[in-house]
UniProtKB/TrEMBL annotation:
Coiled coil: none annotated. InterPro entries: AAA+_ATPase, ABC_AA/LPS_Transport, ABC_transporter-like_ATP-bd, BCA_ABC_TP_C, P-loop_NTPase. This is ABC transporter ATP-binding protein. Keywords: ATP-binding, Nucleotide-binding, Transport. Residues 265-278 have a biased composition (Low complexity). GO terms for cellular component: plasma membrane. The keyword Calcium does not apply. Residues 265-286 are annotated as: Disordered. Signal peptide: none annotated. CDD domains: ABC_Mj1267_LivG_branched.
Length: 286
């Protein structure tokens, strides 16, 4: 785990006193959170705790009732396209791909905040436009290779298996070259193998220099991957710290986990994967 080393680096994200009220309901109350470069930070908590609302405040989808969100040294305006331009990208709880576009086209759409060619240049298709187009495609192909989707570049997004659609969303988010990636339940609905692939991908994203803030209900994923974990309960931050600290905290156990998280990381998951693989092999033999 890299909490100590990472904490010495400058923060990429600083949320200060973020509060979000919907009429009489306070969904998020005075939440502070810092994410450092080279960190994977997990945000956990029961259903309705305010996790997605907090994400929406960070990405400008909601204007927080109170508080500020700072990316590196800049206080962010609550406008999603400006937040993306500043360097924060996200995925959503439900898949939001362009289903009838190809895999490559989906990633190219994610590049648009990083291309500067204007409408006239696009209409004239001059040399500068063609150079920019080629550079975008090269970068998109790099990201498809990184996410293991290069061979599927010309497939329609809607024809990909579920796990690959989720990976494509991540590739598209990475296309804006973010310094911070927000993932909202990236393994929801995945089988054990897909979950394992996603874990590898999230580690690789962190290792190549993009910090990650992830909402996830899969505690194995959270406690195996995260450098730091924050727990939201009823809109308030209950506890934060290393995975070890959080999983042993009596208040977290009482409010969310139910029982302490046990077992060597990945052990049970590995058994599930083996069982699934054995079942698949039996099906093929039949
Ligand atoms: N646009 C909205 N208008 C009114 N209330 C909302 C809105 N969005 C969220 N809420 C409420 O805010 C609270 C927090 O919801 P939120 O979706 O942020 O929780 P969550 O922790 O992400 O839950 P889950 O794990 O189930 O996704 C809930 O009571 C929810 O009903």
């Amino acid at each position: 785990m890299t909490t100590t080393a990472a904490a010495t680096t400058a923060p990429v994200l600083t949320a200060t006193g973020v509060t979000m009220r919907f009429g009489g309901l306070t969904a998020v109350r005075a939440v502070d959170l810092t994410v450092h470069r080279n960190q994977i930070v997990g945000l956990i908590g029961p259903n309705g705790a305010g996790k997605t609302t907090f994400f929406n405040c960070l990405t400008g989808l909601y204007t927080p009732t109170e508080g500020t969100v700072t990316y590196r040294d800049t206080v962010l305006p609550p406008k999603p396209h400006l937040v993306t331009q500043a360097g924060i990208a996200r995925t959503f709880q439900n898949i939001r791909l362009f289903a009838n576009m190809t895999v490559l086209e989906n990633v190219l759409v994610g590049r648009h905040t990083r291309t500067k060619e204007g409408l006239l240049s696009a209409l004239l298709r001059g040399p500068a436009f063609r150079r920019a187009e080629k550079a975008s495609e090269d970068r998109a192909m790099e990201l498809l290779a990184f996410t293991g989707l290069a061979a599927k570049r010309d497939h329609l997004a809607r024809n990909l298996p579920y796990g690959e659609q989720r990976r494509l969303e991540i590739a598209r988010a990475l296309a804006s070259d973010p310094g911070l990636l927000l993932l909202d339940e990236p393994t929801a609905g995945m089988n054990p193998q897909e979950t394992r692939d996603t874990e590898g991908l999230v580690l690789a994203i962190r290792d190549q220099g993009t910090a990650v803030l992830v909402i996830e209900h899969d505690m194995r994923f959270i406690f195996n991957l995260c450098d730091h974990v924050a727990v939201l309960v009823q809109g308030e931050k209950l506890v934060e710290g290393t995975p070890e600290t959080v999983q042993r905290d009596e208040r977290v156990i009482a409010a969310y986990l139910g029982t302490p998280f046990e077992g060597a990381p990945g052990e049970a998951e590995a058994a599930e994967v083996q069982a699934a693989e054995a079942h698949a092999a039996e099906e093929t033999d039949r």
